[in-house]
Amino acid sequence: MNTKFNFTIRYKIPLLILIVIGLASVVASLFFSHDHGMRFWTNFHMNTVYIIFISLAGMVFLAIHSLGTSGWQTSIQRIPEAMAMFLPVGLALMLIVLIGMWFNLHHIFHWTHPEPGDTILELKKAYLNIPFFSIRTLFYLGGWIFLTRWWRNNSLRQDANADLKYFRKTNTIAGIFIVFFAITSSMAAWDWLMSIDPHWFSTLYGWYVFSGLLVSGTAMIILIVLVLRASGYMPHVNKEHLHDLGKYLFAFSILWAYLWFSQYMLIWYGNIPEETVYFVERLEGFNTLFFINVGVNFFVPFLALMTRNSKRIPIVLAFTAVVVLAGHWIDFYLMVMPGSAGASSKIGFIEIGMTLGYLGLFLWIVFRVLAKANLVPENHPFFKESLEYHTNY
Amino acid sequence: MAQPKYIKAYYDYDEKLVGSLKVLKEKGIEILDVLTPFPVHGLDKLLGYRRSWIARVGFIGGAIGAACGLGFQAWVFVKDYPLNIGGKPFFSLPSFIPVTFEMTVLFAAFAMVFAFLIRSKMGPGAHPFIHDEKITDDRFVVLVGLKGNTSDKNIEGVKSVLNGTGARGITLKADVELSKNY
């Protein structure tokens, strides 16, 4: 079963259009809005973090399944692998945010320009300062890129050689990655997102972002699988595999809602001003989005994917995945915007355009990587198991 | 002795059982039930069982539980015994959610357990009839129906088919035991 993905003009043109829309929005945000480029920087940062987490979710997916010695995911393994290969581009985009920080081009992060006499930020300066922040950012991304590359090379070597030693090695890589990821995903969430509101903190924040990462990553995997299936690739991916992916989307949405509510309820119940300020800001300036966020990200996947049949119908799955991806975009918007752009933030053509540009860039890289290797890891020892797979509930 | 209504056939291995069921289906012989010590892969499909409706019972139970949990708390905290807790409004939805969640899970679980017990005639007071002690250990049993045709010729025919599929023991049973269990 040797199938290769052809990254033809049929895919390239729509993606190019998306990228052009993105670039046009960047230009528009830089030259036609009079807010010192703030609209550009906040959107740029937000979309960069979102897309980095989505591509990271690909590797998390692989690592979890490798450590669980599961077999069914083998037939779609190349898609999360390709998603993880976006990370170097994510690093380049994050470097732009860092450069903006060093050259004082933006103030997404309030702690880069603390007001004099702000003792809380003075105390936090030991952790929240530009050099250490940059080192941490490079450390997270460097580690992720190293481990995902290692995995990918190992996986490609197995394509050429059926030796089991490559399969055994995947477990080692996955183990190292999971430990590294468990620590760095939380820290990255504090640095890139929570430190936008530096006076506020939540001990649940890392988990909350992590659950959002799992949902949006799964939704992206589902969408890419469905696109490939619809264009005639991977005919061996059947309803059984879709069913399992649907289960993930369903379960991770509930996990996300659980963590969202845990964070909200404890702060609401405790009613301490230092903590409630985060939600007061969002409920006052971003009331509609705040409720859309919970409603869309919990109730839509919960109700749409509840029954067995709906998880097995591609169109329902695709609809839910798109809704969830948009919903988590709103979630990220609510994490980034109130603290950085504040009352001036809005959702207009620039925001949507830049997001489409990011989507185009991401899919361009993913498809390019997919085209480079066999679409199925046919020498994987669990590949046959994956073809025979079927699930009851 | 009453007329025999069905035949019990014993098998040692699940592969043999599955192979035999395929043969029986091919010959158009009625399969009343299959009793196994553990879930056999693909058996549901082979016997043409419809999917269980227990999930729907769970959904309805859960919905009732959610409504009861939320409704009761709202009634208590707003109407029956309003308490001022930290200056929060009497109807404080976030504080009702955990209890509502627990009630949803509890009602859904109970609804499913009781529906299962009632439907499969189990639970307290039930006298389950075990065809053979060994089916709880390492033996597989197929109950083959005779479709009311209890002539010796038909019984011998079914028996020879069963013998051909590698059944270890074959016994004829009267309807007395069947009516007890089904």
Shape of chain B: rod-shaped
Mind summarizing the main beta sheet of chain A? none
Strand order of the largest sheet of chain B: 2-3-1-4
Helix content bin of chain B: 40-55%
Shape of chain A: globular
Oligomeric form of this entry? heterodimer
Mean pLDDT over the residues of chain B: 83
**Strand percent estimate of chain B:** 5-15%
What does this structure look like?
The complex is a heterodimer of chains A (393) and B (182). With 393 residues, chain A is mainly alpha-helical. Chain A has 15 helices and no strands. By secondary structure, chain B is of the alpha+beta class. In chain B, 51% of the residues lie in helices and 13% in strands. Chain B has helices at residues 14-27, 43-47, 54-80, 93-119, 152-164, 175-181; strands at 4-11, 31-35, 140-145, 170-174. Chain B has a 4-stranded antiparallel β-sheet with strand order 2-3-1-4. In chain B, helix 3 runs antiparallel to helix 4. Chain B is rod-shaped. Chain B starts with a strand and ends with a helix. Chains A and B meet through helix 9 of A and helix 4 of B.
List the defining traits of the structure above.
heterodimer, A: 393 residues, mainly alpha, globular, B: alpha+beta, four-stranded antiparallel sheet, disordered C terminus
List the helices and strands and how they pair.
The complex is a heterodimer of chains A (393) and B (182).
Chain A lengths: L8 H23 L6 H30 L10 H7 L2 H16 L16 H6 L5 H31 L3 H29 L12 H26 L8 H32 L2 H13 L1 H18 L3 H5 L1 H27 L8 H24 L10 H6 L5
Chain B lengths: L3 E8 L2 H14 L3 E5 L7 H5 L6 H27 L12 H27 L20 E6 L6 H13 L5 E5 H7 L1
Antiparallel strand pairs in B: 1-3, 1-4, 2-3
Helix pairs in contact in B: 3-4
Compose a concise summary of this entry.
The complex is a heterodimer of chains A (393) and B (182). The longest helix of chain A has 32 residues, at 239-270. Chain A has helices at 9-31, 38-67, 78-84, 87-102, 119-124, 130-160, 164-192, 205-230, 239-270, 273-285, 287-304, 308-312, 314-340, 349-372, 383-388.
